[in-house]
Amino acid sequence: MAPKTSRRSSRRKKTKVNDNPIEFSSNGDHAGELLEQLNLQRQEGELCDVVLVVNGRKFPAHRNVLSACCMYFKSMFSGSRFAESRQKEVKLRSLNPSAVETLLDYMYTDRITISVSNVEDIIAASDLFLMQKVREYCAEYWTKTLGVDNVLTAYRNADTYNLDNLRNEAETYLSKNFSSIVESSGFVSFPKEVVIVMIKSDFIEVEEIDTFFAVMKWVNHNVDERKQHLDELMSYVRLPLMPAHDLIGYVQKDPLVSASEWCKELIQEAMGYQLLPEKHGEQQNQRTRPRYGNRDEVIFAVGTTGTEGDDLPDKWLTKCYVPRLNMWYSLASLNANSVQGLAYCKEFVFCLCYNFSSEQMDLYKYDIVTNAWSECAPVSRTMHVIRNQVPNGDTWVQLVTCEEKLYMFSSVLNSQTNLVQSMSVRYDPNTNKWDQLPDMEVGRLFFSAVAKGSFVYIIGGKVSDGDSTVEVECLDVVRETWTFRKEMQLARHSMNICFAMSDGTILVSDYECRDPDVYDPENDMWTSFEHEIELAESLPVFFTDCPGGNEMNSVFTTATNSLYATCEASFDENLAAWYRFHMEERKWVPCASMPQLIMPFLCAVK
Question: Hey, which residues does 412 pair with through a beta bridge?
């Protein structure tokens, strides 16, 4: 009798199967091996379905690879619109066979070697084939190898193939290396268009007479053929900025120049400009704009002549000072009311002006390239506290740049409550809009505003009771919050020196010339100069021996690590003394006098 089997043991145990899909990949090895095998087939002429013929040389290839790598072949082989889609051999004209071979190697290997001997042929072929990446490689090759010998080739190809970045790099190189290029043997062979690019640049770092010499060198190399271009070329030489002795001693005496009526007019224009400095603001054109140089830090000044009496002018003069050249230049005048502040932000100089008609704050921006002022969005009267009926001595405005935005802080003494009211606003150049910000905690007049990192520090001033204060507030421009910081050593207001120095600290002093204080924002700590042994020696020079006096307007430049200042007591007729104090040399040095302006608003531009 067969043994009985239990019902439980007869049941089969079911095992759950994991049916989740799993993906496997060679991490790119397969694609590499595929290309490698296709390249071997191409080299052996196996399984190829098209032959490219270039000047008699034949290159077997695969239509699908060619189509996948460039739109030129994809359009050619797709459908039956072109005869080449049905041909076994496809002839390519006006191309270098070696360049085509190099591009085929790149299609199958993703590797390409570019050199001075093949770059022009490669970019010509890649442009025809619509291979944008290879075009970029060629542009990058020229950018990395730019020199006196190949800058013209790079510029011409950038122009031919619309390579904007390369064109900009080439133009920059032409400007920065103006002298060495002019002295090279190849300069006289440059086309006129490239010579114009060089001499019209705002960034060449040479004396203006050298620009004239460059023009004449190029013209005289083939005078019969090129003298017809002299008038056009001379239009780009900035004769009004040329010293009179160069203008008369070289330009006016040149036979070709003296034979040209247009050149005579240019010389007359230059002489008239130099003889009438008070009219500079009205005589602006492309030849009166200064050449700043690629690495220059420039100081801009906007102000009045000091000869207008008590009435504010409707036109404000604009000047700029180039420390490298120790020279002042006149720029386009600003048609506006009362100037309240000047700041540099995102490639423009911004000027804030109070409008007596509307009681709003008008904002203007100066374009350094075009030498022109234009209007921006104003600060409406509801976003600031300045009003017509308030005496000037009871109002205060500060304009600073922080994190590529403008910040305006305005304060007014309310005659009825005897309290100081303050408002804060921010301007975004990208949107051309003003936004309201929280007001500072303590209303004050005659304070200084300094930006450092993403913070704006409001330092000192006079509070509602009329006393100077030691208090410091900090606006976090990201969080839009105010906090109190460490108090100053001395109560101060109307500070004529207050700026962030190269080492990250903030230097503060006032017109009373007491010991200055240095603030360390990172450690929230003030240190008086009198406690710094290494700085104490500079005190007598720095704060009591400025030749122009102590009531000054000043600006600090990081490039030269120097303080520049003009003093009200130094204004004499049409000139104001202009001094430089180097923080390491610790002495005042007179610089080229500031023409016409008295105590202007200043800002430094890099």
Answer: 395, 421
* Domain termination residue (choose one: 282, 307, 334): 282
Mean pLDDT, the chain, integer: 85
Residue 330 placed within a domain:
yes
**Close Cβ partners of 459 (under 8 Å, ≥ 6 residues apart):** 447, 448, 449, 450, 472, 488, 492, 495, 498, 506, 508, 519
Counted domains in the chain: 3
Percent of the chain exceeding pLDDT 90 equals: 49
Between 354 and 280, whose confidence is greater? 354
Q: With beta carbons less than 8 A apart as the criterion, state whether 100 and 121 touch.
A: no
CB-CB contact of 543 with 509 (8 Å) = yes
Structure tokens at 576: 């104001």
The DSSP code sequence of 322-335 is ETTTTEEEEEEEEE
Same domain, 198 and 265: yes
Where among 230, 249, 282 does a domain terminate? 282
Can you give the CATH number for the domain in which 38 is found? 3.30.710.10
**Measured between alpha carbons, how far is 240 from 350 in angstroms, rounded to an integer?**
26
479 token code pair: 């969080």
End-to-end Cα separation, the chain, in angstroms: 109
Same domain, 380 and 470: yes
In this structure, are 182 and 128 located in the same domain?
A: no
SS3 content of the chain, % helix, strand, coil (to 5): 35, 25, 40
> Phi/psi of residue 276, each to 5°?
-125, 70
- Return the residue matching tokens 């089969």: 12
Cα–Cα–Cα angle for 135, 139, 141, rounded to 5 degrees: 115
CB 450 within 8 A of CB 499: yes
CATH number for 253: 1.25.40.420
What residue numbers bound the domain in which 225 lies? 173-282
Residues 355 and 267 in one domain: no
- Give the C-alpha distances (Å, rounded to integers) separating 517 from 38, 64, 455, 513, 536: 74, 74, 19, 11, 12
Q: Residue 13 pLDDT > 70, yes or no?
A: no
Residue 165 lies in a domain: no
**Residue 30, both tokens:** 């397969």
Over 90: is that where the pLDDT of 492 sits? no
List, in sequence order, the alpha helices (H) in 499-555. Answer: 533-536, 539-544
- Would you tell me how many other CB atoms lie within 10 Å of the CB of residue 526? 20
Check: CB of residue 211 under 8 Å from CB of residue 237. Answer: yes
Instruction: Please tell me what DSSP assigns to residue 410.
Output: E
